Amino acid sequence: MSDERFDVLDESGQKLGKVLHRDEVHRRGLWHKSAHVWIINSKQELLLQKRAPQKETSPNMWDISVAGHVPAGETPISAAIREAQEELGLHLEDKDFRHLFTVTQEKKVRNDYINREFNDVYLVSGDFNPSTFLLQEEEVSEVKYIDYRKLESLLAAKYPDYLDHPDEFRELFKYLHKKYRN
C-alpha cells in the first residue's frame, strides 16, 4: 500500500479538509489534484514519456512529459518541480513553468480504482537533451520528442500506443496552434 496521502477535494476543486491515503482516494473515487507538465522545444516538439511496463495504469503507453499526484500539503507547482526531478532528473524552478489551465479527468480504471482529478497543466519551454535525463525506472522506460501537430494527428487517428487525455489535449493543442499561429 502506498504511503501517499492526498487532500480530498469537492467537485469544484476546493479542499474538504480531509486527507486520505492514495489507495482509499482511488477506491472511493474521490477528487484530488495532479500536476501535468508538457515540455516543448524550439522545434515545436513535445517531449513524451513511455510509461514503465510495471505501472499500475496504462503501462507501456506514450504519455505526458511529466505527471504526478499532488500530495497533501504540497502545491501543484512544487509537485511539478519534484516530479520533473524524480522522473527525468530535470532541475527546474517555478519561473520555468507556465500554467496553461486546469482540467478535470474522470476515469474508471477498474471497479476498485476510480481516478477523479483536477489536473493543473503546465508548459515548460526549453531545448533539453533526452540523453542527459536520468529516467526513474519504476515510472518511465524511455522518452522522445514528437512534433505537436504529428501527435495531434496520431491521437485523432486513435493510434493505440498513445494515452489520450481528450479535454487536456484539446486545450493544449488550441494553445499551441495560437502560440505558433498554425
Task: Describe, in plain words, how this protein is organized in 3D.
The protein is of the alpha+beta class and 182 residues long. It has a single domain (5-180), classed as Alpha-Beta Complex (Nucleoside Triphosphate Pyrophosphohydrolase). It contains 4 helices and 9 strands. The protein has helices at 22-28, 76-88, 148-156, 166-180; strands at 5-9, 15-21, 31-40, 45-51, 62-63, 66-69, 97-110, 113-125, 140-147. A 4-stranded mixed beta sheet has the order 6-3-8-7, with helices on both faces. The protein starts with a strand and ends with a helix. The mean pLDDT is 96.
Give the radius of gyration: 16 Å
Report the order of strands and helices.
EEHEEEEHEEEHH
Shape: globular
Could you name the CATH class?
Alpha Beta
CATH architectural arrangement: Alpha-Beta Complex
Q: In CATH terms, what is the fold-level topology?
A: Nucleoside Triphosphate Pyrophosphohydrolase
**What is the CATH homology-level superfamily?**
Nucleoside Triphosphate Pyrophosphohydrolase
List keywords for this structure.
single chain; 182 residues; alpha+beta; Nucleoside Triphosphate Pyrophosphohydrolase; four-stranded mixed beta sheet; 4 helices; 38% strand; isopentenyl-diphosphate delta-isomerase activity
